[in-house]
């Protein structure tokens, strides 16, 4: 392997393969200081309640960035009584839906 182009190409291919594997394994989780996978924290209710009235309407909720699904779908899951407003109690008691087992296996 005297040709430097071949060496560089092989190193690049190895690096690219490793980075793709690492990205796929950790796209939904981050590592804490003890190197354990943890889910990103959800925002505090006060950061969603932009006008400070103690409730969050869909227009306030849409100002927050989300990675998956639509704002309307997530808002509907959190708004337990379907009154179009998320109270702090609804927000704090909401548990995000878990992905189906087959979906989790696809990401591994």
Strand residue content: 5-15%
* Largest sheet composition: 2 strands, antiparallel
- Uncertain regions: pLDDT < 50 for 5+ in a row? none
Structural class: mainly alpha
**Gross morphology:** elongated
N-to-C SSE string, H for helix and E for strand: HEEHEHHEHH
Mean of pLDDT: 77
Radius of gyration: 21 Å
Helix share bin: 40-55%
End-to-end separation in angstroms reads 35 Å
What is the oligomeric state here? single chain
The strands making up the biggest β-sheet line up spatially as 1-2
Number of extended strands: 4
SS element count, helices: 6
Could you please describe the fold and organization of this structure?
It is a single chain. The protein is mainly α. 48% of the residues lie in helices and 9% in strands. It contains 6 helices and 4 strands, in the order H-E-E-H-E-H-H-E-H-H. The strands form 2 sheets. A two-stranded antiparallel ribbon has the order 1-2. Strands 3-4 form a two-stranded antiparallel sheet. Strand 1 (30-31) and strand 2 form a beta hairpin. The model has no long low-confidence stretch (mean pLDDT 77).
Using brief descriptors, characterize the structure shown.
mainly alpha, 48% helix, 108 residues, two-stranded antiparallel ribbon
